[in-house]
């Protein structure tokens, strides 16, 4: 018994030491991630694949479209007085925030109009029923209007109120819904407005609500089954990439019957991705790209109208944590699951450090409930924020990663930069920024989005090659790795597939 007892003791000691070793080394990735984002697939971004929107009736009147309306008789703009909470007037000579209305689409001709302070235009129930106010926080029937376009000039419109009459401007301070709307569309008709359409987001909410509940399922399932296919994973694996970052939306956790206007089917597509990833030896990073309420107001977060309303309540945070719980539980046993990104690009100051810290703590815990090996990625906030602000939180977690996104775009400082200045910026500024978020005892660093596109005009192929090479060299120093945005895109330099096939990038 003595030899066996000693053997058993040695075995226990080895296991104990291995556990200690694992606890101290599991923050070190066993591979350097060289990934590509599968953007525009399970979370729609219209600029990536514009034809996806082509079949929508009145596709320039999608949710979140911003309209400014000039009265032809008084020559001034409709306005929500004080930005909302009171009457509608027509007394502004120029248009900005208070004179801009965001559409909520009911169908191709009926809409609700949201004002600057987020109330909705409706009929004044306290008066004679023809006055206009913007007081409703939640829209209903009395806040639903029909927009009628002039067949000869689509920028000239009338707005039909729920009482059956049309809006008209009687004076600058008196806008009512009591016109028959049967005039000649001329400048003497107080029910006619000249519309300025400032556009709006083209995301998942817009495409599904635009097509409606009958056609949207057909359109989206066709898109999911053709935009990314098995052969793409073969291409990824064969070209020096070892991972994909897959953006998903919060509604995927409710598949196959997500809340309207979303449609079921994206979960099956994600299941397919995991099968293909395993077949071709590709790791998967699940990225919650669109959180309920929108964490940044951009179309890629599936905002309805550009509003940023994620994280404003405990219930909303708990709902988001539940999505992470669902996804991690579903894929925890897959050998392809490498990391879970808790949220993409939360925007400061709307998302405060307190809010994001609370969420990241809860999200980390639910990932660890299902997996001890999956890395947990926490995206730095966009906007005014300290790039190291998550260190105190993330340093206390095992397997934690900070995600930073670097684009030589979206800022005026790049507008006049030459080719060489852009390349120098990568080698100097980006190197310094990456070093700032890279510490020996802190979280790992991940350049989760970058692209070889810039503001430079007239650049040649060699210029693009050198710009891409500089970024690959610098971002290759990130302790976790990097991910190009994105695999496929109608804009060539944003498509890694096109860049590789045409010799702009070699991995």
UniProtKB/TrEMBL annotation:
Per its UniProt record, what InterPro entries does this chain match? Actin-crosslinking (IPR008999), DUF7910 (IPR057232), Fascin (IPR010431), GH (IPR017853), Glyco_hydro_5 (IPR001547)
Record domain DUF7910: where: 58-196
Tagged with keyword Disulfide bond:
no
One Gene Ontology cellular component term attached to this UniProt record is: actin cytoskeleton
In this chain the Glycoside hydrolase family domain maps to 220-489
What would you give as a GO molecular function for this chain, any one?
hydrolase activity, hydrolyzing O-glycosyl compounds
Homology family? Belongs to the glycosyl hydrolase 5 (cellulase A) family.
Q: What is this protein called?
A: Mannan endo-1,4-beta-mannosidase
The source organism is: Rhododendron griersonianum
